[in-house]
Every structure is written in C-alpha cells, then in structure tokens.
Write a structure and sequence with these properties.
It is a single chain. The chain has 140 residues and is an alpha+beta fold. It has 4 helices and 6 strands; from the N terminus they run αααββββββα. The protein folds into 2 domains: 29 residues; 88 residues, Nucleic acid-binding proteins (OB fold (Dihydrolipoamide Acetyltransferase, E2P), Beta Barrel), CATH 2.40.50.140. 28% of the residues lie in helices and 32% in strands. Strands 1-3-4-6-5 form a 5-stranded mixed β-barrel.
C-alpha cells in the first residue's frame, strides 16, 4: 500500500512539474517595449538591434512603394520627431498619408526596419452624437 501511495505522489509531482514547465515556457517571451521616436534618437545604441514597437503618423507625401509593392518606405512623425521606416510585407488597406500607425521591428543604421505594420482609424469607431441610442441619458 505504501508503494502505491509513493508512486501516486511521484506521478502527481511529475504532472505538476510538466504543467509548470508549460506555463513558464509560454511566458518567457520577451515583451516588446513601446518607445517614442525621441527616446530612440536620445540613445540609439540602447535600442539598436532590439525588437521595438512605436506609434505615430505617416508623414504626408513620404510613402514610396517598391516596384513589386511588397515593401514600402515612409517617414513616421511624433510631434517634431521623425523616423524613416522601411516595411516589408503587404500594407493594410487603410495605410495612407497622415494615418496613425503602429510598427514593430528593429532599429538598424538610423532606419526602423518594420516587420509588422498596423493602421488605426479612429473615425471608423467614433460615435455619431446625433444618432439614436448614443446618449446614455435617453432610452432611444
């Protein structure tokens, strides 16, 4: 009886270790820091060759597609700070001048090499103030 109990305890401990291992392996991925263009320019060596996330606006007139349209170069703006960006991949439908974007990638040789490009379109999700049912104080 004592032998069966010890085998059971060992089995439970092994299962617990496996589950703990799966959980820790899944959470070991490094978080991608969200930095500003100013932070990037203040200390470029700190961020060089590290995966980063940035957000800003596409500078009007700065978009230049490659001949095959599989990569694009543009300038991202945050206030007075600018950053040249090179993105390889298909661009989102809403990608255009002056749109807000979020990019992920690495900062190399004074250019941000993005491998993920997302657009934000706040106007698509804004509520029409005059539409019925938009005022929480009424029962329209």
């Amino acid at each position: 009886m004592k032998s069966q109990r010890s085998k059971f305890v060992i089995l439970i401990a092994a299962v617990a270790l496996i589950v703990f291992g799966w959980l820790t392996i899944g959470t070991e991925e490094e978080e991608v820091p969200y930095v500003s263009i100013a932070e990037l320019h203040e200390n470029p060596n700190r961020w060089e060759q590290r995966r980063l996330r940035l957000g800003g606006l596409v500078e009007a007139g700065s978009i230049v597609y490659s001949a095959d349209k599989l990569s694009v170069d543009f300038v991202m703006v945050q206030g007075d700070d600018v950053l040249p960006v090179h993105y390889s991949g298909l661009t989102p439908d809403l990608f255009q001048d002056s749109v807000e974007v979020i990019i992920e990638g690495e900062f190399r040789d004074d250019v941000f090499a993005a491998d993920n490009l997302m657009t934000k379109c706040a106007s698509r999700y804004e509520v029409d103030a005059g539409a019925p049912g938009t005022d929480p104080g009424t029962n329209n």
